[in-house]
Amino acid sequence: xIKDFKAFLFRGNLLDLATAVVLGVAFNAxxxxxxxxxxxxxxxxxxxxxxxxxxxxxxxxxVIHYGLFLNALxxxxxxxxxxxxxxxxxxxxxKLRASSDAPEDMPPPSDEVILLSExxxxxxxxx
Length: 127
Known about the structure:
Elements: H1 2-9, H2 12-47, E1 57-59, E2 62-64, H3 66-101, H4 111-126
Antiparallel strand pairs: 1-2
């Protein structure tokens, strides 16, 4: 059981996922700082309201803090835009790499390569 647990923990997918989570947390901190320390002061300079968090709506004895929601929505939009741009750039880079890696004038495979490929395929079907 311990051996299976070790195999589970050190599987490639789990390590990739853990790395993605750690990088996501770090990325979130960077984007939060970008919004809080750069974009919000720019909005304050233009609109005069440095933080939406103080915006409230009083209904009877209750208070609705809709400004906090606006802050969270603004942060989400910035994060979603940055991720979209990163994924778009990565897709373009992969497309460029795929087109530059493929040789244009590739000679046909030799008889040995064809024979080895057939042997490989036969061995796969038996396993």
